[in-house]
Amino acid sequence: MNHRSLAFRLGVWYALLLSASFTLVGVGLFYGLEHYLRAALGDSLRRRSTQIEEIARSVPTGTAVAAIGDAIEIRVAPEFNNRLVRVTRAPGELVYRSGVPADRSFDPAAVPPFSGPWPTNSVTHRTETAQHQALMMSATTVEAPSGRYLIELGASLAPGDSLQTHLLLLLAMLLPVLVALAAAGGYLLVGRALRPVDRIAQSAEQMLLQDLDARLPVVPTGDALERLSISVNHMLGRLRDSIQTSRRFLADASHELRTPLTVIKGELQELVHNDAIGRELRDRIGSVLEEVGRLEHLVSGLLVLSRLDVGEAQRVWVEFDLAELAAGTADQMRLMAEDRGIQIHTSNLARTVVRGDRARLKQVIVNLLDNAIRFTPRGGSVTFSTSAGEKHQALEIRDTGIGMPPTALSHIFDRFYRVDEARSREDGGAGLGLSIVRSICAVHGVDIEVDSSPGQGSCFRLKFPHSRSSLSASSAGTGP
Ligand code: ADP
To answer: pTM score > 0.70 for this model?
Structure first.
């Protein structure tokens, strides 16, 4: 579980807030119940007290104390009702005291006597026996012809207290469960609510510079999330316009540069063959011509790349035999390779039908073969081979050249990257050949794999998706 995630933090906040509100409700419930029970008990005591007050008032002067007790027992039945009744006549004569109640919740003899002056109005108070039995007491003074009476009624507080204890226990058990359930529910709900954000993030992650028309999914939530995806999509639209403008500018600039370069090259070539020019000047013009050649190479590389960027590679797509294209290209470059003492082997090429822009894919083979020849010392060889798997068909170009260190492999397809800058530049390399290869392959859905180790040689493997006719040919071949 990610502790920094929004879902987790909201879950924790949710749990804290719920705990606080549940605790408040619990405390309210606890004291509310206590207040209600005390009030109900007080009312009941006062009602019974009124009955006894009536008895006291109606007692004729000189009535025996036992007769008063009998009258009370008949009308109120204190023991049976678990009540204490104590009647005292001024100045301090105990007229009546009820016996041990049916539930034995208190000992009537142990209830402390009323302290202080007798109240004129009915009062309720709490008292405790020596055995810590808590009672609620009501006390009223009655003026009767037979004397002045203090009428006390009491009831045990134990049943109410035990109800409160039960409530407390129930709350203590339920509260953590409720909070845990609510927090888990909150965590899940927030996680679910954030799912559209995840979808947007995944789409943003998968966006490629090649696909400038890709847009984020707009989640119809009608809130900030929907507005965010719409705004980001608008921004992507503006970004696409600006990238396309700069790509078109690069394409136009490299195109415009080609003509003056061709003119300069032509003029210099004419000059270099002019006999009226001295040897030293001719040498210098020759080296300028070499630089112009490199510049031309660079500009045409940039032009190809920028055209690929603006999506001009998908012009003429046809199905053709890749093996035939590779063999033909190898034949055209064989002379250059032999000049450098390098053999090209094409005997492992088998018919491999692919679909794509033939001219562009020829450029891929030219660039890879050109690199293989340039980075292989005299006496080495370059071998072409094809293979077909279940998911793809591959063309392999393997050389016995100088190879590349593992750290370079992740950069060789970057623009202007050269492993050994000095050597590559000497050979006319501008670091654009493999970038062009990658761009063309990306358009054709071709994966490129490179194996290389210094001093051992390199192998570039192009994995083509099966074309429709190559699939039907192979299924025809394997069918019954
Ligand atoms: P360049 O035009 O400079 O050759 P590339 O983009 O074609 O640029 O290649 C980038 C770099 O990758 C080269 O400078 C070279 O160092 C390295 N490289 C490419 N192909 C090979 C190979 N077959 N053998 C060894 N190094 C290679």
So the answer is: no
